[in-house]
Amino acid sequence: MIFHEIYSAYYNAVAGILSRLLSGNVSPEDIGRIIREQAFSESAMAIEAAIREERWQLFHKDGSTALRYAPSMPLTTLQKAWLKAVSLDPRIRLFDLPLEGLEDVEPLFTPEDYYVFDKYGDGDPFEDESYIRTFRLILDAIKNRYPLCLGMENKKGLVSQFCVLPEYLEYSEKDDKFRLITSGNRRVETVNLGRIVSCRRFRGEFPIWCGERKKCVRQVTLEIQDRRNALERVMLHFSHFEKEAEKAGDDLYRVTIRYEQSDETEIVIRVLSFGPMVRVLRPESFVSLVRERLEQQMSCGL
Amino acid sequence: MAYSELIKNFDRIRGYMRDFYVYGFKSREEYDRKSARSYDDERRRIESWLGEYMGFRQTPEGKNVFITIDSRSLRHNPLYKAWKAKSFTDGDITIHFILFDILHDPSVRLTAGEITRIMDEEYLAGFSVPRVFDESTIRKKLKEYVGEGLLESEKTGKCVRYRRSGGVLPSCVDALHFYSEAAPCGVIGSFLLDKAGPHQEHFAFKHHYITQALDSDILCRLFLIMRERRAAEIENLSRRAKHPGTLRILPLRVFISVQNGRQYLMAWLFSEKRIMTLRLDYILSVKPLEVQEDFSFRRAELDRVQKHMWGVAARSKASLEHVEFVVRYREDEQYIYNRLQREKRCGTVEKLDDYSCRFSAEVYDINEMLPWIRTFLCRITDLHFSDQVLEEKFRRDLKAMYAMYGVGGGPQ
Predict the structure, then answer these.
(1) What CATH topology corresponds to A129-201?
(2) Fewer C-beta neighbours within 10 Å, C or N terminus of chain A?
(3) pTM assigned to the model
């Protein structure tokens, strides 16, 4: 199944070394670099020893090989089935994924086989032709490093135009949306693709803003009472952040989470969701944000 | 046995990686389920694979090891590395590369005997102490690779010939990159990306729960079982039981959370004649059983139940519970109404006036909704549950929160 040596980092590293060897000479430095890229931090010792001692009879002592072709492995049934499965996903139209040869392949799964139950209901229109065109142009601009002129509609229905240098796309599974992360424009850092109403290549002299955006990282320390399985729920819920946890007593834990300032409101409501099992210890500014919400709640008469 | 960064079995490392990543506060002594040496070996392996993400802290109880990752800063799930650390023998790797060199093109068709002879004479004879592979060893490997889909076999009379399978790696690296992170069993996409060679990465992922990677094999097996509409025997841990139990089930659908990273299997439990929920990270093994004729019927039953599931609680025979609450918002907070609309799932949202709206739903388990309802604290003006006990619990928790933060003059 999935855990098989044919997919292993060592096989990939050896394939890389053999390919390089068959296309010319391979130096010890090349071997080291390929192993570092393809495998793990301690792999060099094991792989080089196996080659040197002729335990893997693919390399001769003089640095040659009896192999004639650059290594290549056909796709496995599992890989084909996975490719077929993703071809059934609505987002696939964003990409130009050629799927010849998979006509008779059974998908590993279909949309009927799984259900993402807590995804937000207003995801991007992945099958909309205009959205697809915008997505593809943005992706091309990212790859080929050219600026784009984007039109965005504001809350009042007015369209504003601005130019950016696209850096990369960020996808949120929870929001089911793509955001474009940009540079070159001091006022615009993140653009929701779903809100773009026009997108074209910017031709002309682009006045690139070269300033540096400081990523403002904050941290919050929470105290967790491990009742109603709160510890596991909290740790899993916040597992995608950089964090540190420690045991503070019987059924009492402390966890410090680092997050970007722009996500602070989201973090506040996520902390609130755990009710009295989670208490904010510090900083005081974050405690105030929670307290403020609770005071407002109390004023609602509940 | 000498230490190696490669492993034969994934089960043990699965538990350690989850503990280091999700919790990260246990000291060496607290990992009592295995020997101290086993702990040291697993820690060293994980450090070898994920060194840059490992952290250490000295506490009075000992040294704590943890994995800490801001998944937003990643382009690839680093936990996939564990799936690429399968051990193998010297013979396995030697045969693998020579075999595909001999069968370099689908037009080359050879028998096991012919492959063995070519391997001996043209590839291994040049070594000072050449390896000798007998025909049965080669035949075993050929059979294994036919099973994996790497080779095809053709029988003519008594003679079986082997050739490499067709199918080429898709050229769209962007799609492989995206789906290797965003699709179920994404590790398979990561295997494909490994073959794509050096490439640029244009995607990052927010709210990305990477621990799901550790359950990829279980998930993959469950999908295959569902495709074949089979029953299954699973070995399962539960939070309450100390030892794993065995269940005979009919897997119906996998439920995935993108807000806490958990994955669940919804399955028909034969012994109790009901739909049950199982967490994938608690499933230790999966074995396919016989084909079940009533798969479609049971899945249709799940479809019916699913309409009233907030999360994963499926009590197909229980009555529905009613939940409703009213939120208020200012003129400049119309996004609250939009938020309710996009997060309502099986519920409905009704605008009461320009500054308030009511959410209501009929669900099997209100308990699952409590954390979400709390995210609206600061604006809930009215709240009613048909389950009075749960409503009281919600209000009691709220009072405890007031007290916790000294709101309303209560203790802090």
Answers:
(1) SH3 type barrels. (2.30.30)
(2) N
(3) 0.95
